[in-house]
Amino acid sequence: MTLHLPAIAILLPLLSAPICVAVRHALVTRLLTVAVGWGSLAVSGELLRQALSGAPIHYELGGFAPPLGIEYVIDTTTGYVLVIVSTIAAVVFSFGATTRGAALPAGREHLYYGAMLLCLAGLLGMTITGDAFNVFVFLEISSLSSYALIGLGQDRRAPVAAFSYLIMGTIGGTFFLLGIGFLYQATGTLNMADMAERLASLHRSRTVHVAFGFLTVGLSLKLAVFPLHQWLPNAYARAPAVISAFLSATATKVMYYVLVRMIFTIFGATFVFGKMGMDMALVPLSLGAMFVGSLAAIFQTDLKRLLAYSSVAQIGYMTLGLSFNSVNGLTGGLAHLFNHALMKGGLFLAVACLVYRVGSSRLDDLAGLGKCMPITSAAFVTGGLALIGVPATVGFISKWYLVLAALETGQYLFAGLILLSSLLAVAYVLRVVEVLYFKAPKSPDVREAPVSLLLPTWILIGATVVFGLRTELTAGLARSAAMQLLGAGS
What we know:
2 strands; about 500 residues; two-stranded antiparallel sheet; mainly alpha
């Protein structure tokens, strides 16, 4: 059985999704989804353990040898991302609220759980596959289910947000597919390892240059790289908070991983940064995201929309780390991939707890809830401190590595801008703190959220402190992955 764990990791949620839709029983589908989430985490953890203890795992799907057959590959970086995605899935799927807390109409829980499992299968598939076209297939699986999840909410603007995301996502997916087509035309293969070997002698080919351009733009749209982020604020703000928690903590993280794989595993850092000069474009866009996203968050009147714009800024930190093309820079980007998943997943779950009690995420409606819902409010404040990058939280670790990467290359201005952007995060976090603790409550009889909601929320929020203190667990893995990628991309 352990030999087939790479296939089981994808088949488990993929086959469970149609079962949820067919059964249509809320309790049964919920229990099945929770079991699949924790089962996926167990499988991912075992794959990461195997990858760390030996050579990368190569699994030939259907017994057909690559490059003709589809191959699944698990190394340190792959296992790292698999564990991140499956951890978020296990915790979010365990979140106790379905209809009311997730703002879903009654009777549609089976669609919610089916789409969540389908999205999980797509995300895990993109991470684990070693076939370029297979990445596109799984990308569309996760994207289509994401559109459905966003449109499931009771907010009348949710279908519009889902449609906007669909349009931008389709454009991004089309660009990505065209890039794969050009790469296939240039190399005659879709296997990533085989493609990388053949591309080593084709760096002057215009077809390869065009392919790189299409792939970069397509992935940037999916990742919401500034200024291609317009779909993200509406999608996260209009979707039910539980769905926002899952998507914000997983979807963009996997797209960042795919972008990193494309740069270091397929094209190589020498081609991407040396010949194509990607860092010259990525640095200003990353800095723009860090400041524009944070400034926009300060002026939001809806808490989910505030967190959505915060995500734009946090993606800027990850792409900035990538643009440094160094061990510390890439370590900071990969560490922030994990850290931001914990922070934003926990923060959106805290918002779901608030919405469960007051039925709204507008800041005016949350006034004074720090007194009525102290445990939920404390979770949000702790997650906000991690977003700022306060020491002893995971956010500090990511920004520390980014500052080190800037200093070691003599980019003192970038180091200062990283610190300055953190001060903007202080502004929008304190704004929420003021609303929660220093304004009179509209309804003093509001009760704390139930334990079934608080426990998953505090698992993620508590992890932002635990891994902020035990840095060797996450930063150590991120550094190993960065060294592996830079070795492959040199």
